[in-house]
Amino acid sequence: MQDRRNLLARAAGRPRDAGRRKALALLGALGTLVPARHAMGAPGGLPSNTGHADASPEWDKLRAKLYGDRKVDAASGRVQLIAPLRAAYGASVPVKIVSKLAQTPELYVKRVVLLVDKNPSPIAATIELTPELGQADFETRLRVDEYSHVRVVAELSDGTLHTDARYVKTSGGCSAPPNRDALHLIGKTVFKLPEGAKPGATNLAEVTVIHPNDTGFELNNQTVMFIPPHFVRSIKVSYADKLLFDADLDFSLSENPTLRFHFVGRPGMQELRAEVEDSKEQRFVGRLPVQPGMAAAT
Prior knowledge:
Elements: H1 2-12, H2 20-27, H3 57-67, E1 72-73, E2 79-82, E3 93-99, E4 109-116, E5 123-129, E6 138-142, E7 148-156, E8 161-168, E9 189-192, E10 202-209, E11 232-239, E12 242-249, E13 258-264, E14 270-278, E15 283-290
Parallel strand pairs: 1-8
Antiparallel strand pairs: 2-3, 3-6, 4-5, 4-7, 5-12, 7-8, 9-10, 10-13, 11-12, 11-14, 14-15
Helix pairs in contact: 1-3
């Protein structure tokens, strides 16, 4: 976990334990961002926005700080990012990461980094993956503050780096206030199985954490004061007591952050479990007993 959090520290050029405001100020030179109102994961079949994998000044700086002189291959096709060219609401932009590689012990995607070039916190998520996923695809929703490239970098178990990017046109998400009607539910963590569960097959699942994911940039309409930052910092998901993924997150994910993912079903009753921590060091747990043959959860 600490190694992944150090990615953001290195991008900002400062120790991880520096003040949050100082970190945002340092990252501000690299871009700008958004909050989100909807909890649902990005739906499958998003419109493909191709031909926008260009470099940007922000990405050039981030790439040098995160990966040094390592080659980041943008032409291999090992990973694809799907996102809309125009997003109606900058606080909830659906994105989908598609891996072109099966998760096998011999070769698999071991880390995925999701970035928004011009957000004040450009590293939205750093996800450590295991072969237990079966398929290294993820869907979520992002905050995007202004027209910006959104990128994914996938690191394989052989150490190679592969990337894809899309240019997303939207704005205003950074100051969009979250829905504050369910603050009493903060931390409630819910799993869904959109297509049910089958043993021996790769099953689709999603986990949602009810949380405002405050960025620190929204104004309280009554006090006209900035709402302090408060967001989900990490989500660690396991199935049948085996780790699926461990995600280190930032407020560049939308309100009520959702991750849609896969896991390989096992015989008998097994449990999906999520361990969640937020920026105030509050910890939450979500569970779902999974029975083979379970109907789709709605």
